[in-house]
Amino acid sequence: MLVQTLCLFIFTALFRLIFYCFFFKSSITDSGIIAKAWYLGLKFDLRLTLILMIPLALLAVITRNKFFTSAAVRRANFVYLFLVYLVLTLLYVLDLGHYAYLGLRLDPSITRFFASGERADNARMVWQSYPVVRGLIGITLFLFLVSRLLVYTYRRYARQQAVAIRKGRYAAWISALVLLFAAGIYGNFAYFPLRWSQAMFTRDNGITSLALNPVLYFVSNFTVKGDTYDLQKTREYYPYMAQYLRVDSLDAQKLSYVRTVPGVNKPRPNIVLVMLESTGAAVTSMFNNPMQATPNMQKLADSGILFRNFYVPAISTAKTVYGVTTGLPDITRVKTASRHPQMVDQRIIMDQFAGYEKYYLLGGNTNWANIRAVFSNNVDGIKIYEEGYFKAAKADVWGVSDYDLITEASAIFKDAHQRKQPFVAFLQTADNHPPYTTTKGAGDFKKVTEKDIDMNKFKQAGFISIDQFNALRYLDYNLGHLIQLAKEGGYLDNTIFVFFGDHNCTLNPYHFMPFPEYELGSGGEHVPCIMYGPGHLTPQQNTRAGSLLDVYPTVAKLAGIPFKNYTLGVDLLDTTYSSRYAFISYIKNLQFCTAVIGEQYLFEVNNGTGKTALYDLKGDALKDVEAQHADTARALNNLTHGFYESTRYLMFNNKK
């Protein structure tokens, strides 16, 4: 028992070492803090080891001397231990891949990648992004060695001379075994057992991830409840939300969120929304990234409106598409709202562009994340251009390359322009995402290597790989291509473009932004947003907080169409708001938090513990100043809960 327990414990510690050497990233360099994370992590590893060894301990106690003489017991012993190593190996490898992809430990939200109709695409993405064959060979070889070790260990002890043990000594052995197992599982030299909260002794995701055991964390999170809403809480916080939104008629019983916006009699401009895959503010030239990888975005920002404090409500491409289209933050915990049948049916602003042709353009297949339903179910007469329509061949699992998507999309826009038909379009890029496929485009895009760049600046910039850096450069290249095609196609001067990131990519710690957004947890949601429309918009930099939810209310007003706003978005360009806040949600210390963020303050609510904090972004941004600014904290607490509860309610009750 002791030998097998030791072997399994070393196995778990080995994967912790692999995580630390190759995946761990943190802005904390204090060796004492890192050592404490290791200490706690090893205690969690010991707890997992002992829990998994309990069945074997019971088998040994029950069978006694038959443990080494019975063929059936021998087979049960081997099969159980081999299955333990097999399942743990697969879970640990999956956890490492998940962390490399999202910067988070494995949790039940992984099940969204196994949704019906999406498994094939996700499998192809894994195949094209990771060394699957070499990985499987490595896992197979590793498990073969484990099986040999199990057989050798069993035979070595089975060949030993049998020794009779008196009842008293046998009882002592069993008592010692029970006490040792209980102590190891308890895990603390204190009156309370080892708890998850102990792993969260800093505000740093990397340290917390190092201190946790991914398997225990994954299993514990399967207790999450289904997404729903609380009518009583919605009514409680409705007045704060209604006042912020300036609803037409404040009614806490009917819960009306409607705002009526009159139209303006003027020529209708085209509207093109361009979603920039995995593009956060921190990686772009406009936000002082040392690598200056996005010169075309910089030109657009200089010639249009750059929103410096623009946020998406959550990190996920599907959540972004849902959020910008419906005007509601996707705060679902396990899957996404687009995959939830009761949340798809929404009254949205895109549907109210009367007289406009409406397009959604994606290089891949819109069955992905059930995104097709978000558009086809809510936008009357929308034309969806997807995989199978385009003349270009597929570049990777995500469909045609961004260059080919933009080329063929521009032809559609040009045709509408020549017919004098206004249009509103959602153009979704995908190549700034694993497997980071880049093409030559028009023939002049060239990837760089480590020899071509300043690696000191590269490390300061936060990028984790040259492929990631090249993919961002390729995205920027294609934006230049789009504007050039619009100019050649004649529709540039009559079009308002909105370029926005869907979330930040996974980055190493960076410290060149105005406040420590990486440590606060808001860096993943901080994205660039540029509105560009020659002749329609005056170049400026807007520092008021803005949200993905605000995009359609803003462009609809710019277009002059009459509409009713049933969403939680407001006009980004409305200067009558004295203070603006964006609602965001993120994982901090592996706990779900909701928050509102403005120019000066970030107010945060830990949805698990209920703990709140207020951070002054223009002061010591990592210090909780809630006690010093009680009135501000109270107002923002109400606004944060107002956004959260109103969202949960409207997801189910904003049906057409």
Descriptive report:
With 656 residues, the protein is an alpha/beta fold. Helices cover 44% and strands 11% of the residues. It contains 20 helices and 16 strands. Strand 5 (357-362), helix 14 and strand 6 (383-385) form a beta-alpha-beta unit. Helix 1 (2-22) packs antiparallel against helix 2. The termini are far apart.
Number of separate helices:
20
Which residues form runs of ≥5 with pLDDT under 50? none
The helix content, as a percent range, equals 40-55%
**Rg value:** 28 Å
> Can you summarize the main beta sheet?
8 strands, mixed
Q: Give the mean pLDDT.
A: 92
How far is it from the N-terminal to the C-terminal residue, by CA? 63 Å
Bin the strand percentage: 5-15%
The order of strands across the largest sheet is 6-5-7-2-8-9-3-10
Secondary structure category: alpha/beta
The shape, in one word, is: globular
Number of strands: 16
Give the topology, please.
Elements: H1 2-22, H2 31-63, H3 71-102, H4 119-129, H5 132-158, H6 167-186, H7 196-199, H8 205-211, H9 214-220, H10 231-245, E1 259-261, E2 270-276, H11 295-303, E3 305-307, E4 310-311, H12 317-326, H13 341-344, E5 357-362, H14 371-376, E6 383-385, H15 402-418, E7 423-428, H16 455-461, H17 466-489, E8 495-501, H18 517-520, E9 529-532, E10 540-542, E11 546-547, H19 551-559, E12 563-565, E13 582-588, E14 591-597, E15 601-606, E16 612-616, H20 630-653
